[in-house]
Amino acid sequence: MELTVDSLLDEVRLAGLSEKYGTPLYVYDGAVIRRQLETLRSLFPAEAGVEVYYSMKCNPLLGIAQLLRREGCRVEVASAGELAAVLEAGYPPADILFTSPGKTAEELEWAVDLGICSINAESLEEIRRIDRIAAARGRVADIAIRVNPNLEQKTAGIRMSGVSSQFGIDEEELSGVLAELPRLQSVRLIGFHVYFGTQILSADALLAQLEDTFELALRYAEGSGTPLQFLDIGGGWGVPYFAHEAALELDRLRAGIAELWLRYAGRLRGTRIAVESGRFLLAEAGVFLTKVLYRKVSKGSTYLVCDGGSNQHASSAFLGRYIRHNFPMRVLGRSGPSEPVTVTGPLCTATDVLGQKVELPAAAVGDVICVDKSGAYGLTHSPVLFLSHALPAEVLLHDGGEYVLRERGRVHDVIRGQLPLD
Ligand SMILES: Cc1ncc(COP(=O)(O)O)c(C=O)c1O
After folding, report:
1. What is the position in ligand 1's atom list of the atom closest to the CA of 276?
2. Per residue in 243-268, pLDDT tens?
3. Which UniProt key words apply to this protein (predicted)?
4. For labeling, which of 97, 194, 218, 294 is most exposed (least CB within 10 Å)?
């Protein structure tokens, strides 16, 4: 069967998958991932030769990493676990970036031994540590400095620039750090990295941060007389989740990037441009399926209590946020007049709410709720140990095939690795 990018909208297929694999269940559509990747690539002029790095943190499934490798992506990791997964997925070290504010000595040793594309260093102390590690091995490690630019990305869902943070080196500290580099013989600065924030939906804001990045990187590279070999412009490309959000204006973005490229191409000749992306590639490619266990009314409000909740899809429950909006969701196989219901998981906490007063067609016990736009920051972003439920299965539909990427967990998984007292 030929899968189209609309295949996830096929409720009959999803209902069949929920029966076959049980619930809770994540389902992904490879065609949507491919479409998003093509869209992202199409935003940049071909002559810029932009390299797309998949941010593993958004969905660290081995099979997804493999799919994106086959599609020509490189990869960005943030831990030894993610590094292990991408090596297993077949990424060569030269295609791997490592970014995280808290890399351990062991993680850095591994990255240096592998000779990955770039360790994106987040502090002077970390650069010194990489230098010592590389020196002890008689190697020279390629690094990029992650800069915390002064430009604040006010439109980002989570801001990671222009404000005080554990990420990167503040722009105003950069000169001092660069001045120390000549004394560190075992690191080689190949360029810079910025990451302004996630879930940015404004084309103008993305263009402003891109221009700021070009200016910043070129100013320091040209000022130090070192060619800018590598520039990681970060990610943060958003997708609309909620009724009040509009999708990125792609044509406007494409035209704006083309115009920027015209202005900067000369100064960026010979520079490898990297873009990182997680959410944009994956969010719309996945759904979370959870079954209604009970339907009840409490003080006039209707509740659908389901078998999977915020322990497996914390993003939908908006854990840790003050303002909540409901993820788009539907009841498989049901249409007709809607009613306001609160969709909860099975946890013994009032925060276990996947959808609050969401308008859904009347659902009965045994019906399956489908939470859309769940491909990024779903299971990986969730407190999966809370209340000791087994992990959901994860299935990929791709090129006509159906692949189990994660088997359903078993009840006893929860005590694996624990040692009894007696
Ligand atoms: C350094 C870095 N790169 C890439 C990403 C992925 O961002 P997104 O999923 O918004 O594309 C993140 C997310 O937090 C990040 O911190």
Report:
1. 4
2. 889 999 999 999 999 999 999 999 99
3. Decarboxylase, Lyase, Pyridoxal phosphate
4. 294
